[in-house]
Amino acid sequence: MILLALALAPALAIMIYIYIKDKYEREPIGFLLKNFGLGATASIIITLIIGTLLQYVFPTADPLSISQQFFKAFIIVALVEEFSKYIIVIFYAQSHKEFDEPFDGIVYAVMVSMGFAALENVSYVFQFGMTNGIVRAFTAVPAHATFGIIMGYYMGKAKFATSKREKIKMNLIGLFAATLFHGAYDFFLFINFIPGISIGAFVSLFIGIFLSRKAIKKHQEISRFKH
Asked: Which end of the chain is less enclosed by CB atoms within 10 A, N or C?
């Protein structure tokens, strides 16, 4: 029970934080939980299927190959995971009537991301123990939230784009930006055989957090003017 609480607590804390930040028109709890649930189920299933196929076609077995680890970080892990979340946001949340202001892009993308991160975290914590859970509470889970905020910022803009072309463009920029930060974070961790290189993961995470805070503030201002 303690391990389960430790695994779920970071995602829950981030969800509450984002919910509070949605100051002007908060989303229904039930719909938020549905997005969280889809993140924990559908996105995990999509990731496993696509990731396994890619890993089979493009093996990245050599842990000392920088090119293989680059492909693994940016494509097999980052793109596949972010695409699995993106699919849910674009086809389930973005088309829903409750998605009615730009900030909602951040809200729903984070809820889906936290569903994914929570289930992933449960798996890691039960496999590797409490210490791993504590470390991930300050690294991997906030990282998933950061990628979700970055993606959601652009998907919020896409929802209210004035043309179909602009909508597609904003949605794809969101997917690309989240994948870029996710890939950079993982890549530096994957090539930790180079002394000191893993610090790059935390640099990319801090940059992502900084940009996420700006994205939240910007969409809050837009929402304030709408109300």
From this structure: N
